[in-house]
Design a protein that fits this description.
Number of domains of chain B: 1
Number of helices of chain B: 15
Oligomer: heterodimer
Structural class of chain A: alpha/beta
CATH architecture of chain B: Alpha-Beta Barrel
Strand order of the largest sheet of chain A: 13-14-15-12-11-16-17
Distance between the termini of chain B: 42 Å
CATH superfamily of chain B: Aldolase class I
Helix content of chain A: 25-40%
Radius of gyration of chain A: 22 Å
Order of helices and strands of chain B: HHHHHEHEHEHEHHEHHEHEHEH
Strand content of chain B: 5-15%
Strand content of chain A: 15-25%
Shape of chain B: globular
Largest sheet of chain A: 7 strands, mixed
Largest sheet of chain B: 8 strands, parallel
Distance between the termini of chain A: 62 Å
Chain lengths: 476, 342
């Protein structure tokens, strides 16, 4: 046997303060009418820091600071000067990438190899990409002189805390808006470190404001009359509430919500690579991915072989300490999320689907869930319809390409989909028929700042990334 | 692993009897997605192997080295020195394991045999060596195996009877492992039967010696071809499949070896017979070698983590392994002068 010795990344690169205030108007301030809450390490349940909770008055101060910065500094600033700040932020993110990666893994529970190799590099890439647009907006296809909207209220989820921040802040700032961002209550730390990076970059005060807190803070922010634009990534339920709240106002809204993506494997697929894609599709980031390939649709004629390979591959997944460089699957982000995953998995078993997990030892403390697949799942099972947002895959079969399309589209969601086949013509045929914002062919969970991302139906509206992502922050 | 492969085992032995059957089978294997295979290989390369795991991996890698010299300038003196080093890679440290084999041209086999013969447990593939339990090889060698390239290595561009005579001569001179080259021209022209028949004939000429089949993946160019050639070599009776001769610009790579490992894994599932894998050429550092071992571990599992089933065709790799080994035990790096020249 070849046992890998522990290879933990050092925590010493991060300096977590005992408590954090709100980042308003360029400085960290104590809340006026809010309280505080604790952010914990989901892998150990250890308290990492005490975080200020912004109340209505705090949100108001942040929005006013953003308004002032928009009117006095950032809005009038030439694009080429805004670009300089964004490039500077991007470079600082690269310089401090190890620190950001370790902090992200500590606060979120995701494996260090992902925060180090995926999240943080993409964050830097996003800032670099949109920095390039800042002085070229007249050429983005939105008219000769597109204007910013003003103050953007941005609410982001806990699954990719820093990456979602980048997706929101980079295009907003490039287009000339100022922002008030609320990170998720379980993962605020990297956003607060980003605030320090803004200070380090000498970003003018008030351009970026970060208010921490839970649902009430988020509600106060999106309902604040002083914001011109609301951008939300998170659950469909909250997304609908936000849509109702901003209905009838002048606020422009983009929503990136849940998903139940079909990953479709045909009988001529490159099996070994398809299995890698299935694993990446559902077990990447513990399955806490809105575009996760959580429904595997496999052609019946190869189902046994694909499942056999998949199980063999799953037995190789290493679950455990997120800071160990060899960990493939880290901790579930919170007790609440773990409870939800457990509940839906129990429903799956109770409804008659067959449950399988590889033998794997889970740590005693913290929130953990073994990678799991359900076979014998049909469209009528709840685990085939509801977003689990965890490392749980539902396996369904199909017989013909037409049936694959029907089943893939038979969901209220429509964020992403995957196709695995050696036949190029089939990829094009299928991609035309899938009602999903992103369709990956012979790959999965590939992200790039130049490529737009967003959903159909209950997965939301608006696009982030690429030239398309600018539209959400321009008055067009 | 097509439907044919997963059905009854006797089906596979029939494949070599007709060009059509071979072609149908090989072209029915699932394709390899180039991007995906390269991505997976790169991922495996990011594993962090430290402390005890590193020490274990380095010793295993030393035992897996086929210490190789394949130069026109090889002389009896040169190969004797190499064989001596193979037995005791680190003269300063008796706990250092010996390598898996010495690999030379047929003309050099007698000189290597002289050195190795006196070395160990005597006859057969001795059980004294690490994991070398099967007794199917010829008598006369010690603890380190003696591999000879043959079949008009490296191009293989000679008449079949010459290639077979080359093989028999090497075995007669004392080689217990033969590294043959496949007929790439025939393979690329789609004449699979010809390639197959040559391997079968070479295997027969080997007698009890183990046959490693060199695919020369750098000339096959695509991963689909690598997978097909792997299956062809295994169907024809090869005991090992090996990536390269080291004589063309592209030698062993991680993704090529990954595709070959997947092939031996699927072949064993289909037939019950286990075949070894030998990446050769271009693996120069301990870091690289450890990446390969991680790939073996996570693709085919511990059954292949043994010099009987996985080898490195290399020369300069050994000294880097020794250097890292010394660093792990002493905590300091020594200069190259503290390690013997091959």
């Amino acid at each position: 046997m070849f046992e890998y010795a522990p290879a933990p990344e050092s925590r010493s690169v991060v300096d977590i303060k005992p408590s954090y205030g709100l980042f308003v108007d360029g400085t960290f301030v104590d809340p006026v009418d809010g309280g505080s809450f604790k952010s914990i390490n989901p892998a150990s349940e250890e308290v990492l820091a005490e975080i200020a909770e912004a109340g209505n008055e705090d949100v108001d101060r942040a929005v006013r600071a953003a308004r002032k910065a928009y009117e006095k500094v950032w809005g009038p600033m030439p694009g080429r000067d805004r670009a300089k700040y964004l490039f500077r932020i991007a470079r600082l993110i690269q310089e401090r990438s190890r620190e950001l990666a370790v902090l992200e893994s500590l606060d979120n529970g995701k494996p260090i190899k992902e925060s180090r190799d995926v999240d943080v590099p993409l964050v830097a890439a996003h800032f670099f990409y949109y920095a390039g647009w800042a002085d070229k907006l007249p050429y983005a296809g939105f008219g000769p002189d597109p204007k910013p909207l003003g103050v953007a209220a941005q609410v982001i989820p806990w699954n990719f805390p820093l990456l979602m921040l980048a997706w929101k802040i980079a295009p907003a700032l490039a287009a000339g808006n100022t922002v008030v961002l609320k990170p998720a209550e379980t993962t605020p730390l990297t956003a607060l470190l980003f605030a320090e990076i803004c200070q380090q970059a000498d970003l003018p005060a008030g351009v970026v404001n970060i208010v921490t807190g839970a649902g009430d803070t988020g509600r106060a922010l999106v309902e604040h009359p002083g914001v011109d634009k609301v951008a939300f990534t998170g659950s469909t339920e909250v997304g609908k509430a936000i849509a109702r709240a901003v209905a009838g106002t002048r606020k422009k809204l983009t929503l990136e919500l849940g998903g139940k993506a079909a990953n479709i494997v045909f009988d001529d697929a490159p099996v070994d690579q398809a299995v890698e894609g299935i694993v990446n599709g559902i077990f990447f980031n513990q399955g806490h991915v809105c575009c996760a390939g959580s429904r595997l649709l496999v052609q019946e004629s190869v189902a046994d072989r694909v499942l056999e390979s998949l199980k063999r591959r799953m037995a190789q997944l290493r679950v455990g300490d997120p800071l160990d460089k060899n960990t493939d699957i880290g901790a579930i982000n919170s007790a609440a999320q773990l409870a939800k995953i457990r509940e839906l998995s129990e429903v799956g078993a109770a409804e008659g689907a067959e449950r399988w997990s590889p033998a794997c030892e889970l740590p005693d403390r913290g929130f953990w869930f073994a990678p799991t697949i359900f076979t014998g799942v049909t469209q009528a099972h709840r685990i085939a319809r509801e977003e689990i947002f965890g490392p749980v895959l539902s396996v369904l079969t199909f017989r013909t390409p037409a049936e694959a399309v029907e089943k893939a589209n038979n969901t209220p969601y429509g964020l992403s989909a995957g196709i695995w086949t050696d036949k190029g013509s089939r990829i094009l045929w299928l991609a035309d028929r899938l009602r999903a914002g992103v369709v990956w062919a012979n790959t999965f969970n590939k992200f790039d700042p130049t490529s737009p991302f967003g959903g159909y139906k209950e997965s939301g509206y608006g696009r982030e990334g690429g030239r398309h992502g600018l539209e959400a922050y321009l008055n067009v | 692993m097509t439907a044919t492969a997963t059905s009854a085992r006797s089906d596979l032995s029939e494949l070599g009897r007709s060009e059509t059957a071979l072609r149908t089978f090989l072209h029915g294997l699932p394709g390899v997605d180039q991007v995906g295979a390269e991505q997976r290989a790169a991922q495996l390369g990011t594993r962090s192997i430290k402390t005890t795991a590193k020490a274990q991996a380095i010793d295993l890698a030393i035992r897996m080295v086929d210490l190789t010299t394949l130069e026109g300038a090889d002389t009896p003196g040169k190969v004797r020195a190499l064989a001596t080093k193979a037995l005791r890679p680190d003269p300063a440290d008796p706990s250092c394991p010996h390598v898996g084999a010495v690999c030379v041209y047929p003309a050099m086999v007698p000189y290597v045999a002289e050195v190795l013969r006196g070395s160990g447990a005597g006859s057969g593939r001795p059980s004294g060596g690490p994991g070398q339990a099967d007794g199917a090889a010829p008598a006369g060698l010690g603890i380190v195996h003696l591999a000879s390239v043959a079949t008009a290595f490296p191009s293989g561009q000679a008449p079949l009877d010459v290639k077979l005579a080359d093989t028999r001569a090497a075995v007669a001179a004392g080689a217990d492992e033969i590294d043959m080259v496949i007929n790439r021209g025939a393979f690329l022209a789609g004449r699979y039967q010809e390639v197959y028949d040559e391997i079968v004939a070479t295997k027969e000429a080997c007698g009890d010696a183990h046959l490693k089949v060199i695919l020369e993946t750098g000339e096959l160019a695509t991963y689909d071809n690598v997978r097909r050639a792997s299956w062809l070599a295994m169907l024809a009776g090869g005991d090992f499949i090996k990536t390269s001769t080291g004589k063309v610009p592209v030698a062993a790579t991680m993704p090529v070896t990954l595709v070959m490992l997947e092939a031996v894994r699927d072949f064993r599932a289909a037939t019950g017979r286990q075949v070894g894998v030998k990446p050769a050429g271009g693996i120069k550092t301990s870091k690289d070698a450890i990446k390969y071992l991680v790939m073996v571990n996570e693709t085919v599992g511990p059954d292949w983590l043994d010099p009987d089933w996985f080898r490195f065709g290399a020369s300069s790799l050994l000294n880097d392994l020794l250097m890292q080994r010394t660093k792990l035990t002493t905590g300091v790096y020594s200069g190259p002068d503290y390690f013997t020249l091959d």
